[in-house]
Amino acid sequence: MCGITGAVWQSESLRVDRSLLKQMTDAIAHRGPDDDRVWIDNDQRDGQGRRYGVALGFRRLSIIDVEGAPQPMSNEDGGVRMVFNGEIYNFKDLRHRLEGSGHQFATHGDGESVLHLYEDIGTDCFAELNGMFAIAIWDTRRSRLVLARDRIGQKPLYYALVGDRLVFGSELKSLAAVPGVCNEIDPAAIDEFLTYQYIPHPGTIWKGVRKLPPGHVAIFEKGKLVVQPYWDFDPTVEVPRSKGEAVERLRELLSDSVRLRLQSDVPLGSFLSGGIDSSLITAIAQRQEGDTPIRTFSIGFPIADFDETGYAAQVAEHLGTNHQRFEVQPNGVDIIDKLVWHYDEPFGDSSAVPTWYLSELTRREVTVALSGDGGDELFAGYDRYRALWLSVRLRRMFPIHKLPGIGLIQRLPDNNKQYSITRRAKRFLEAIDQPEARRYLNWLQIFPERMRAELYTDEFVQRLPGEDPFEFLGAIWDRSEGRDVVTRASITDMLSYLPCDLCTKVDIASMAHSLEVRQPMLDHRVVEFAASLPVHLKFRGRRGKLLLQDAFGSMIPKSIFTRKKMGFGIPIGAWFRKELKPMVHDTLLADDARIAPYFRREVVERLVGQHERMENNHGYRLWNLLILEKWLRQWAG
């Protein structure tokens, strides 16, 4: 696990010299504390004799072949050079095949297999990889730079084409080090952020700076940039299977995925929250490790509504793992500036806070950790899938506006509990009469469209483009046309929420502490299999994750499947009435508030006041506004 950065340019005035490249590389030193190297060639030439300059920078976290495999690496004749962030889990099979075709390997690492595979089949090589990765390849023979990102978006990759210079990096910090790149905030990104709590790919907070979408390759050649998919996943395809066939295939795929992700030359453990997904991944890993207890880690909080460590301890005892429980007193005042710096652009998922603490403490013990991310999206585990299913049934039965008590519920005050019944009922009823995709977005979004309309200043509205933030989710929803509503929602999450929110959250929080997190559920074979399943194998009525229980239920206590879902949260509502209250008044409501050009002060004051007086729970909305304010102060001058 590492950090990569670099550039390609034609004009000498846009040259990236060693000093600038070092700044770009040092900006992501936390991603790779074990080694840093750079390579620059200012005298590359294409077939017409035009001169190119190329710079590649690398920070290394040593996981496989700890002493060897330095980067940037090259092939035998130096015609192809590469920097690579991530892990290729099937590298041993690829290496055996490549050695058979005559390639000579100089290292025992996983990255060199990518380099030689590219020599043989060009950009088709990425479809052969099983792993999480962000890759940059300079091909001297073709005078082209190739960028690629893994199918699920586990590893980030940003780029910007300014004039005839392309710059790229694992984090926006690297690009921000280059003059003239991160200059102007994109108003549409702020609108998207308040909708989703993240900024969807391919956009970023900065105009002209892009995220390479998951499963895509970008080719910069002859001054032109072409971005295209290499993953041919078709979400409209449903494969009929019997329950027995599906169980057997899932056991085979997920067990092999865990096996591949146990490869490591450094200490490895597993996150164990006590939920279904992390428990199953840990159970499979422990079975494969045999008599050697795997190390497991959980994080506890002093507030019972947010503490799952009792369940984690139950699973650890059942499996016989070497378990360690960390307890922390999360503090929004202490952590928010760290989050804002590391996440680079506004990122409002408050579960980044516990993820940050868990990564920080786990890294003191191991360098690699397994995680159960993806189980809810792949196997229909979220409550919102049940809500969507129920809304479809209700709409078929009778007109929704005639539901008894609907007006009363909408007028009830909210409360501070994480899973407030009142809040969930109000959100459910507010969206139930909308088309399915819009209904689903309404349950996902932080600020509904009507609230954003009230919040935005007239000047900011004038700066917004004509695009609706819904178009991002709507386009993905349309890709699964013909499938049932629960499957469409889960596939939409798999292609949007999973890469843009969950993978971003885990990557940044873990790499801030030089911890590699591996997610076996996100093996593309498991993802494609889960998406192809008929819904009845995963979800029936009020229950999801049925196939996971059918396949692996005997490995963990039965109570883990029937316990109430808690999520990975913090007391965000209470924070804004206590420890974060002074910060809110000193920033969001200050005379020099950076959000002032975008948002009406009286609306922000109303949200703050309603929350502090406990008239409504705006905790998550205030968190997103505070994150944006803090980001503007730290990154926008």
From TrEMBL:
Ranges where the Glutamine amidotransferase type-2 domain occurs: 2-223
Transmembrane intervals: none
Gene Ontology molecular function: any one: asparagine synthase (glutamine-hydrolyzing) activity
Keywords, alphabetical: ATP-binding, Glutamine amidotransferase, Ligase, Nucleotide-binding
PANTHER family on file: ASPARAGINE SYNTHETASE, ASPARAGINE SYNTHETASE (GLUTAMINE-HYDROLYZING)
Pfam families the UniProt entry points to: Asn_synthase, GATase_7
Pathway recorded for this protein: Amino-acid biosynthesis; L-asparagine biosynthesis; L-asparagine from L-aspartate (L-Gln route): step 1/1
Signal sequence range: none
Name of protein: asparagine synthase (glutamine-hydrolyzing)
Protein source organism: Stieleria magnilauensis
Listed EC numbers: 6.3.5.4
Parts forming coiled coils: none
Chemical reaction(s) catalysed: L-aspartate + L-glutamine + ATP + H2O = L-asparagine + L-glutamate + AMP + diphosphate + H(+)
